[in-house]
# Entry
Amino acid sequence: MSKYISIENLKFALFELLESDKLFALDHYKDLDKDSVNIMMDAIKDYADKSMYPVFKEMDQQPAVYEDGKIIVHPAIGRFMKDAGENGWIGPTFSYEDGGMQLPHVFHTAASHIMECANNNMTGYTGLTGGAANLIATYGTSTLKEMYVSNMLEGKWAGTMCLTEPQAGSSLSDIITSASPQTDGSYKIKGHKIFISGGDHEYSENFIHLVLARIEGAPLGTKGISLFAVPKNRITDNSGLEYNDVLTAGEFQKMGQKGYCTTHLVFGENDDCYGHLVGAENQGLKNMFQMMNGARIDVGMTAASVATAAFYASLQYAQERSQGRRILPGGVKNVEAQQTSIINHPDVKRMLLLQKAVTEGSIALLLQASLYHDLSHHSSEEDKEKYHLLLELLTPIAKTYPSEMGRVSISNGLQILGGYGFCTEFSLEQYYRDIRIMSLYEGTTGIQSLDLLGRKVVMKNGETMKLLTKEIIASIAAASNYDDLKPYADKLKSASKNLEQVVMHLLQFAMSGNHERYIADATIFMEMMSNVVIAWQWLKMATTAKTALVTGNTIQTSEFYESKIHTMRFFFKYELAKNNGFKETLMDPDSLTILEDKKSVLA
Ligand SMILES: Cc1cc2nc3c(=O)[nH]c(=O)nc-3n(C[C@H](O)[C@H](O)[C@H](O)COP(=O)(O)OP(=O)(O)OC[C@H]3O[C@@H](n4cnc5c(N)ncnc54)[C@H](O)[C@@H]3O)c2cc1C
# Structure
């Protein structure tokens, strides 16, 4: 079997970089230790090798389809839901009372990485089920919890997230699905939801849809949206199941992630669909954000994982494919010599290093964000707020950077295969198609960028940015202890200052009331800030590697640590350097996308 993941890198990030095992000192996690989480990850890797990776290509070739009112998916999904339920992988972070193992999120994210590297078409089914169950456990009544949560965590029933409607994609304030209160406390639900991932298939006996809808008479906009748990089959008085008028109207045929079904659902076509409110009336979007924020980290990790698997596929190819000869001093080529492996050509090495820099930088950021999540729930009161704000700020970046740059990195990986990269015989073209969705669903890159610049950067009067800068300064100070890392610490200091200058420059527009101008180039700002954040992660990784080499306190080979330092240098030279151009664009007084006469510029 081909290599599709680096478990060494994952363990380096978890234990050496983030020291996540320190969490076990907290009361909530006191029953866990490093050995038990290592055993769990090894078991997941074994499962991924045997049951997930072998069907990765097959699921692409046998896409989910709609036939006779049913969605047909690959049978591996049925086995996976069952196995994941039995092994406790659907809700491992849940408390003991709610049926979980109180696993920190950082280890759950790591476990997802292993599975997603093996097969990114499968994990969404369990990820959404766990997310939906978590929403019910957090905001639902005890009756709702009893009705749904255990069946979902056991993998018998599936969960979904139903936000999108034909006229309400990015703009959720335009949702029109309606909810009418009934005398028994339930609500009659009516409306169409489209693009629903994992929305229906034959391997779950029931689906619990978490639906955003508007209660009759609710205010317009997002302030009038409520959240409902709407089962496909409702529980009868004698604990059986009866159809709840949730019709499966079709399946979207897609360019990638073909094994992960995407369904059109119609609620209440026969006026016989009932759901229950989850949380308070009109608080639906706010509550749904709990699931959406988790899903954004999940999407980021899926993207990083697809790009990781692609990296190892192109690395293997580059080692095996011979083509051309190295240029000798004086520009001479010895045509009598054997052809060299393409990995020896600087341009191919550059593409491989880009893949490594993007994927390992992304993984470090995603695990960092997940650790902040754990600390925001289980540390001291004062620290909880700090970690919560850091997580809020980093979430749009953790979703977007791996999705956008993961795609670029896979494109480079495909390039390494030359013409074979374009052929279905190799997996690169599938990875390239699969990753494309990541920058679209769970909020497009445009919407994440608006969230970053429009909300997160200015949250609590800029407290979020201050906290991040503090973290970055601490990492700069640690790196500066090593002479060979100091120049990179200085570069990050100056990149961080440049980012600050850009924020101050843009804020002038917001303060003068020109909000459209403030956020017009939010996506460019996202690119610039992401580079600072990933450079920070790389500097931290290089410092950790250097410390291991200097102290001899190592759990990996010296080549592993040296390669970390080399890749950090690569990231700073080839990626962080781009921030000078981003700064120039963001501070340019010319405003070319906001024009009165929009037609003329595109004529
Ligand atoms: C495979 C797949 C699975 C999905 N799974 C789910 C799911 O499980 N549940 C669910 O509810 N939804 C799901 N979706 C829906 C997905 O979240 C939406 O497609 C996405 O939010 C974008 O909405 P839209 O497609 O209507 O695009 P639009 O909102 O029409 O956006 C089109 C373009 O306009 C830009 N744009 C829109 N508004 C603005 C603005 N205010 N400022 C700047 N730019 C803007 C966008 O960035 C985008 O580039 C899924 C979609 C797909 C394709």
